[in-house]
Amino acid sequence: EVQLVESGGGLVQPGGSLRLSCAASGGTLRGIAMSWLRQAPGKGLEWVSGINSGGFIRTYADSVKGRFTISKDSAKNTLYLQMNSLKKEDTAVYYCQMGTSRGQGTQVTVSS
Length: 112
Description:
Blueprint lengths: L2 E5 L2 E3 L5 E8 L8 E6 L5 E7 L6 E3 L7 E6 L4 E6 L8 E7 L2 E2 L3 E5 L2
Parallel strand pairs: 2-11
Antiparallel strand pairs: 1-3, 3-8, 4-5, 4-9, 5-6, 7-8, 9-10, 9-11
C-alpha cells in the first residue's frame, strides 16, 4: 500500500506563499490521479485541487482558483501544491490523497 507524507506547511502572513509536497513510497504516482484536500478548524474535509492520471488536467475549487497550482513530478514520486496570495481562510490541515490512501496532513496557518 502506498504511503503518503505531506510537508511544507507552516505559518505565513496573508499574501504570502507556501509550497506543499506529498512524497509517496511503496508505489508510483505515475499514471495516477491525485488530489489535495483541506480541513479548517471546526469544519469538514474540503476538496481543494486535483490532477488527472496523465498530469495534464488540473482542477481547482473556486476558493483557490488563480492562487493555487497543483503539479506532479513522477520522477520524484511527489505531488505539489504551490499556494500564492494566501488568505486567512486558507488556514487548515492539508492532505494529499490517492485513491483511498491519504497522508497525515500538514498544517498551514495564515495569520498576521
